[in-house]
What does this fold into?
Amino acid sequence: MIETERLILRGWKDSDLDPFAAMGQDPRVMATLGPLMSREETEAAITRIDGIREAVGYTFWAVERREDGAFLGFCGVKPGAENTPIEGEIEIGWRLAHEHWGKGYAREAAQASLDWVWANLEVGSVAAITTPGNANSWGLMERLGMTRAPDDDFDHPKAVGDLIPHITYRIARPAK
It folds into this structure.
């Protein structure tokens, strides 16, 4: 579990399914991620996310607001996707419900996730990917100090339609 001033990044609970399923049905949330997700697809996603945690000890954790326990979305790190330029690296990612955008939660959770990586994993850098049209996401990457790696932009093998092209960002481990 990771705690910040306003957030708790934690393992997934059964009670996260309904709000996460609602996120997967929100066209604003899914606009740069892919088709709307059914409840079954959402359950399968949680199972995959939990499986990553069981296999490697970290994952895209559920993000909970400390003051009221509300589920906001997810943020964390996982092994980079196979058949992409970040395979074998640590990937940071996030997804929040639309009503929680613009409040600094994603940045707070992402910075806490980066801090966790630097404290717990012996890696030289962390990568992130998104679609070129997802200005909110790549803007956050830049605010976190990540830099674009245009030589590693790619067509995502699991994406569809206009969401196939992906851009890559990285951040190096801070000097001690």
